[in-house]
Queue: 4 jobs
Job 1
Amino acid sequence: MLVLKDVNKTYDGKKMAVKELNLKVNAGEIFGFIGPNGAGKTTTIKMITGLLPPTSGRILLNGIDLATLPVEAKRNFTYVPDHPEIFTGLKGIEYLNFLADMYEVPGRERRNRIEKYTRLFAIDTALGDLIQAYSHGMKQKLLICGALLPQAPLFILDEPLVGLDPLATKHLKDIMREHCAAGGTVFFSSHLLAVVDEICDRIGLINQGELIVCDRVERIKNGSAHSLEDIFLELTKDGEG
Ligand SMILES: Nc1ncnc2c1ncn2[C@@H]1O[C@H](COP(=O)(O)OP(=O)(O)OP(=O)(O)O)[C@@H](O)[C@H]1O
Ligand SMILES: [Mg+2]
C-alpha cells in the first residue's frame, strides 16, 4: 500500500532530517512509527502526504508515484496532522462537508458517517460552532471524523492520541483495528509505546533520521522480557544529550 524508496530530506541545506529511508507498509497492517523528538517522524509523514517534497527518493501509494500523479496517489489516504489548528474560521459541519466534497463522498453515506463518527466521538452537538471555539481534544476529534469520512484505504495519523480522552482513545484504537481487519492500512506515529505495543502489527523506529529497526513487535522483543520502552531507550540512547 505504501512504499518509500531511498527517501531523503534536508531542510534548507542543513543536516538531513530523514536519511535513505526505505519502508514498505502492506494492506491490512497497523504500522507504528516511533522515535525520539526530532527523529524525523513528522517530516516523513509530511513527505508521504505530499505536504513536503523529498530532497530525493520516491514515494508510492497503492503503486502510484506521488511525484508524478499526486492527485491519484492522494486519493488513497486521509491524514490527521499533529497540530489540529486548521480551518478555525469554519464551523465543524462545514469542515466535514468540505472534506466529503474533496473526496466525493455521496450524500447518504456522508450524512450517515458524519452522524456515526461525530456521535461516537461526542462532538455531534458542537458541529454548528466555529472550530476556533473547540478545545484541543475536540479539534483532534473533528479531524479524526473528517479523515474517516472518505473511508480511504490508508489512514495516516501523526500523534493522533495527544489530547484525546480515554474513551475517545479507545474508540480510535477500535477504529484502527476494524479498518485493518477490513483490509485497510493504518500508519501512525506515537510516543505512547504501550499503545503502539498493544495495537501495531509492525513498528518502525527512527532515530536521527535513520530507520534503525523495522519489524514485528514480537520479533523486536525477540522473546526477551523487556518492554518496548526498555528496547526503545536502549536503541536510542546514543542520541542523548
Ligand atoms: N520546517 C523545518 N525547518 C527546518 N528544520 C526542520 C523543520 N521541521 C523539522 N525540522 C528538523 O527536522 C528534524 C526532524 O523533525 P520532525 O518534526 O520530523 O521530528 P519528529 O520525529 O516528528 O519529532 P517529535 O516527536 O518532536 O514530533 C529535526 O531536527 C527538526 O529540527
Ligand atoms: Mg512530530
Note: The chain has a mean pLDDT of 95.
Job 2
Amino acid sequence: MAYRHVSAMPNEVMTCLACKPGGIYVDCTLGGAGHASAICERIMPDGTLIGIDQDADAIANARNVLAPFADHIHLFHGNFIHLPDYLDQLHLPTVDGILLDLGLSQHQLETSGRGFTFQKDEPLDMRMDVRTRTRAEDLINQLPEDQLATTFWRYGEERWSKRIAKAVATARRNTPIRTTGQLVQLIRETVPRKSAAKQKIHPATRVFMALRIAVNEELSRLAEFLNVAVERLHPNGRICVLAFHSLEDRIVKQHFKQLSQRCTCPPGIPECRCEGRATLRRVTKKALRPSTEEADRNPMARSTRLRCAEKLAQEGDANGSR
Ligand SMILES: C[S@@+](CC[C@H](N)C(=O)[O-])C[C@H]1O[C@@H](n2cnc3c(N)ncnc32)[C@H](O)[C@@H]1O
C-alpha cells in the first residue's frame, strides 16, 4: 500500500536544522520519510541518519524511500524515548541534530484502518505501535466514568467531557463500544445541537484527539524525551520540534525556555545559588507557523508550530569532537 504523507514546513525545518555535510542527524518520527530524505540530501555522501518510528508501516516505507542512502542510515522500530539506547547501540555519544515531527501521518489517519479518524467506521484502536497493549476500545469500555471525563478534558479540552463520559458509561452497560462509528454516533447524540452547530470542528474531534493522546501516552513521553534528547546533542547541535496542538507545544516551549535560562533559583531569592548555566539557545523565540499558501495546499499542516533550539557549548567541552 502506498504511504501517503506531505511533510509540514519542509523549508523552515531545513533552515532551522542547518544540516552540515557529513553530520549525524536523528529523525525521531520518520512518517513518510519526507524530512528524512531532505536531511539525507544535505548530509551525504559521508553523513549518517538515524530514523525512528513506532509504526511498522513507517519503517517499511522509509526503507524504500531512503534506499539510495542505505549504507548511511540506521532505522529503529520503536518509541523515540529509547533514543539513548539506539545511540548507544551505534556507539554514538552525541549527534548534530534531532527532529521531532509529532502527531499522525496522513497514512495513519486515512488508510491505516486503526480508527484514528471519525470520518470512517473502523475498529477503535488508535495505537501507533500495534505491539503495545492498550487500545482506545479498552479505555472507552474499561475506564471508570470520572477518569474518562478527565481524559476527555485534560487531553482534548472537551467542554462536554462529563456529559460524554456519562453517555459512554451508560451505553457500554448494554453493548460494548468497539467502533469509531458507535462512538461518533454517541457523541452526536450527547453534545447539544446548538453547541455542535456553533463549533467549526466536528463534534467528535476533541474526544478522538484525547483518546489518541491517552492510548499512545503522547504528552508524558514527549516531556520524558526532551529531557534525554538535549543531553545527546553535540555542542552547537540543534533540536527542532513540530507540534500540532497547544498541549504539545506548551511542553516544548516551557522546556526550551527553562533550559535557556541561566538561573533556575525560585523567584524572590536575593542572590543566585544554583550557579546555573543555560544549556540551550532558543533559535526561534516564537513558534514558526506555516505560510497561508502551505496551509491551503496541505490542510493537515495548518496547526503546526515549529520551535528550534541550539545546544550551547559548555566550558570543558572538547571542541568539535563527538
Ligand atoms: C507527522 S508524522 C511524521 C512525518 C515525517 N516527518 C515526514 O516528513 O513524512 C509522525 C510520525 O511520528 C510517529 N510517532 C509519533 N509518536 C512517536 C513516538 N513516541 N515514537 C516514535 N514514533 C512516533 C508516528 O508513528 C508517525 O509516523
Note: The chain has a mean pLDDT of 93.
Job 3
Amino acid sequence: MDGRLKTFLKSRFPALVPLLRRLKFIGTSPQERFAKIYRRNTWGDEDSSSGSGSNLAQTEAVRAVLSSLVRELNCRTILDIPCGDFFWMKLVDLDIDYIGGDIIDEMIRDNQHQYGNSRRRFLRLDLLQDELPKVDLIFCRDCLVHFSYEHIFPALANIKRSQNAYLLTTTFVHRDRNEDIPTGGWRPINLQVAPFNFPAALRLIDERCPEAEYRDKHLGLWRTADIPVL
Ligand SMILES: C[S@@+](CC[C@H](N)C(=O)[O-])C[C@H]1O[C@@H](n2cnc3c(N)ncnc32)[C@H](O)[C@@H]1O
C-alpha cells in the first residue's frame, strides 16, 4: 500500500491502525520479515541496522554495566540472542566465551567474518525453536518486544528448556498492561504483568533510555528456572 495512503488512513481512521499493521505482514514468515528489515535498513539508524535502540547513545548505560554483571555472576559463557549487527556489543570488554545468535543468515555471516575469533562465534539460531547452546547467561535484548504473544511464549519456553542458569532481557517496568502485536512490529512489554507474570527480577538495570516515553526501559535478570510455565 502506498505510504501516503497509509498515513492518510491512519490519521483519519485511527481504529484501522491494528488492521493496517496486520496487513503489512500477511504472507511473510517472521524470518522473512526480519531479513527484509535488515536488508532495507527499515529501522534506519545511522549507527546500527538493528535500529535506534542499538545505537551508542541508547546502549551507553548497558555497555557500562554488562561486563561487571557478567563477572559478578561468575559467567564464563554468554549467548547473545539476538545479537543483531553486533554494533554496540563489539565495544563491551566481556573477556568470556561469546556466542551471538540471530535468525538472519547474511547478518550472521557478516558478523562472523568481521568479528569472529577464537572466543567469539556467531550462529544462525531461531530463538523460537532451535536448541540453544549451553551457556551461563542468555542475553536477549530488544527481541520479545518485536514478537506477537504467539511467538513470545515459545521463545520463553525454549529459553527455559535450555536449563541455562540466567536470562537477562528487556522489560519496561512501569507498564501495567501488555498488548499483542504481529511479529515484526514493536511495543514495550512488562514481563512482570499478565500474560507473562514473571516474579520480581533478581536485578534490574536501568537502560536510561533517552526517549522520554521509554524511560522505564530496563534489563531484568531472572533465573531461567523461575520463568513461569506459560
Ligand atoms: C532490534 S534487533 C536487537 C539486536 C540486539 N539484541 C541489540 O540489542 O542490538 C532484533 C533482532 O532480532 C532478530 N530476530 C528476530 N526473530 C528472531 C528469532 N526467532 N531468533 C533469533 N533472532 C531473531 C532480528 O533478526 C534482529 O536482528
Note: The mean pLDDT is 92.
Job 4
Amino acid sequence: MEIIKKQVIIIGGGAAGLVAAIFCAKNGADTIILEKNNRIGKKILVTGNGRCNLSNINLNINKYNKSEEAGKIFNQFSVEDTLNFFKSIGLMTYADSEGRIYPSTDYANSVLDVLRIKCENLNVKVVCNYEVKNIIKIEKFIITGTGDDFIADSVIVTTGGGVFEPIKKLGHSIVKCVPSLTGFKTEKEKIAGLSGIKINAKVSLNIGNKIYTENGEVIFKDEGISGIVILNMSAHLARQKTDKAILYLDLLPEFTEQSLLEYLINRKENCAYFTIEQFFTGMLHKNIARNILKSIKEFDFSKKCSTLTDTELEQIVRALKNFELKITGFYDNAQVTSGGVNLSEVINLQSKLIKGLYFAGEVLDIDGQCGGYNLQWAWSSGAVAGKSTINNN
Ligand SMILES: Cc1cc2nc3c(=O)[nH]c(=O)nc-3n(C[C@H](O)[C@H](O)[C@H](O)COP(=O)(O)OP(=O)(O)OC[C@H]3O[C@@H](n4cnc5c(N)ncnc54)[C@H](O)[C@@H]3O)c2cc1C
C-alpha cells in the first residue's frame, strides 16, 4: 500500500521555520520551506553580534510580554529540550556567567549550519527567492507567490516580525507591530560630547505612572543611548505601544543621595586643590561631569572646587542620581517587533479560524527581553508547531 505523506509548507526559513521543518520532516511529512530571501537563516547570522545568543539557562517567562502563553509552549519544548536538540544535530554550546547560551565556536554560522545540514539530511525542500503573497484554504491550502503555486495539508507561518498580509486576508487580526529591543534617541543637548562613553548606571523608565528599573551598562551614541539595559527598557515601552516616556539614569548607583553628598563634601576638603573642572577626576568621565555641571549652571571651571557651595553640591548629587533624558524616538535597528498575530485567535500555535494553519516565532504577539529569549521562543514554538502539524488533524 502506498503511504501518502502529509504535505507541510513552512513560510519563512528563519530560526522558527528551520526548527519547524526539522520536526515536520522527522515525523514523516513532505516538508517545503518557502523563503523570500536568496538564502535561509540570514538573520541568525547577525544575532548576538555574530555569536548567536541562542538561549538562556535562567529563562524566566516573566521576561516575555505574554508570559503565560509563552510558558505553555516552553512546557512542551524547554531550554533543556532545545539544548538536547542542538546537541543531537551536532552543535556544542556553553553558557556565560549570566546564563546566556552561545555556540562553543562563538560563531552564529555554526547554528545555521547544523540546522541547514539537518534539513538537507531530512530531505526538506528549500525554495529561496519565493515570496508568499497569498494563502487560500479550500480543502487543502493553496499557496501563491513569486513562483509556481504550492499545495499543502498544513501550513506553518514563520515570517518573523511585522505584518504578513496573507494572514490578515484569512481573517486574523494583528496586534500593532512596533520596534522593540532598540536604542532610544533622546534630546541631544544633554548627551552632547558623550558619544562612545560607557557607564554602569541604574536606569529607570517612567511610562505614565509605571516605573521600570534595571542596572547595567549604558552606551551613549551620537543621537541617543543604547546598551542591553536600554534595549530591555525599549521592550517595556514597545509593549505599552507609546513613545511617551522619560528615562532617568542614576550615574552613581553604588551611592545613596545622602552618602554621595557626604562623599562630595569630604572630597571637596580632601582634594581642595582640584579646580571645578577637575573635581570629578578619577570618579566620573570628564565629559559626563561637564554635562552634569552644565545642566545646573554656567560654572567657572577654573575656580577651585572649594568654592562649590553646599547647595550646589546638593544640586550636583540630584543631577547625578537623576540624569533625565526625554525620549524622542527609536533607532531603526530593532532586534524584534513587539506585536503580531493576536494570541486570542490561536490555540497551541494553531489558528482557531483556519484548521491546519500554524504560527511560530516572532510573527506571533510574543516577544522577550535581551539574553537569548527571542531565539528560544523561535526554537520552542517552531518545534511545537512542527510536531503539531503531524500529531493533529
Ligand atoms: C541584530 C539582531 C541581533 C539579534 N540577536 C539576538 C540574540 O542574540 N538572541 C536572541 O534570542 N535573539 C536575537 N535577535 C532576535 C532574533 O533574531 C529573532 O527573534 C528571531 O530571528 C526570530 O525568528 P523567526 O524565525 O520568527 O523570524 P526570522 O528569523 O525573521 O525569519 C523569518 C523569515 O521569513 C522570511 N519571510 C518573511 N516574509 C516572507 C514571505 N512573504 N514569503 C517567504 N518568506 C518570508 C524572511 O525572509 C525570514 O527569513 C536579534 C535580532 C537582530 C535583528
Note: Residues 11-17, 34-37, 42-43, 46-48, 52-53, 131-132, 158-160, 164, 335-336, 361-362, 372-375, 378 surround flavin-adenine dinucleotide (CB under 6 Å).
